Amino acid sequence: MNQESFTTQSPTTSQGPTNSLNRRGFLAGSAVLLGANAMAQKTTPVPKPAEPAQQTAPTGPFALPPLPWAENALEPHISGKTIGFHYGKHHRAYIDKLNKAVEGKKLAEMKLEDVIVETGKDPSTASIFNNAAQAWNHAFYWKSLEPKGGDEPKGKLADMIKADFGGLDGFKKEFAEAANGQFGSGWAWLVVENGKLRVVKTGNADTPIARGGKPLVTCDVWEHAYYLDYQNKRADYIAAVLDKLLNWEFASQNLAG
Ligand SMILES: [Fe+2]
User: Fold this and answer.
1) How far is the CA of 223 from the centre of ligand 1 (A)?
2) 86, 225 contact by CB (below 8 A)
């Protein structure tokens, strides 16, 4: 099955301080009406200060990073509805599950990248790896896209694209083939290896950084990334990412970093 299951947050039910204060106020008022002033003064509770609002964000060491743009900023190429589900349900669920899985473990004190490398070595920690890698991959994917992106790489990156792919069209062709050719769920990546650019694809949650790779940009090809907007036309979604959304400035920053 290609698509992840949705995990929804339980609605927060908070006994708001307003309700309880109103109730107290009503009781105190009733006592006065009954002519029991002295008694009321002794028994009327002192209102407590308002309690802080209940947290709705995932708790634990790993936080859901904010999107770098508004949910509808990538329209008409990726809808606000797709981003709303993808970020608000899928990405959030990876963070929530990761936090639950590392609770009380040494992993809870590690950087996310180190959790990925550590759990990627051991098949018995595959479920933690999957959630950690997906948490990282999605944060990287959001930054790989930008409204009015898909222009042209600049500077050193442009030179490398020309040297290693014969130019931007050559890169797009190879990247689209990898993204379309990924059987089932996964990711397509532009990475640097031994000083050269390469296009690679990974299945499911797998990520180049598990093996010390250096990605510059990525494209999520899980169905949840495009199905609401493109249904089975994955190629159209990938073309929109490459031509209209890809953030070459982010790629250059990663190359320099
Ligand atoms: Fe995704």
Assistant:
1) 8
2) yes
38 CA to middle of ligand 1, Å?
Answer: 64
Q: Measure 222 CA to ligand 1 centroid, in angstroms.
A: 6
**57 occurs within a structural domain:** no
17-52 tens-digit pLDDT: 333 333 333 333 333 333 334 333 444 454 444 444
Give the C-alpha separation, 3 to 227, whole Å: 10
CA atoms within 13 A on the CB side of 140: 27
Task: Please count the other Cβ atoms lying within 10 Å of the Cβ belonging to residue 193.
Answer: 12
- Burial class (CB within 10 angstroms; exposed 0-12, middle 13-18, buried 19+) of 219: buried
Q: Quote the number of domains for the chain.
A: 1
The alpha carbon of 25 and the centre of ligand 1 are apart by a number of angstroms equal to 50
Contacts of 9 (CB under 8 A, 6+ apart): 56, 92, 96
Centroid of ligand 1 to alpha carbon of 181 (angstroms)? 17
256 alpha carbon – ligand 1 mean position (Å): 26
With respect to residue 241, please indicate whether it lies within any of the assigned structural domains: yes
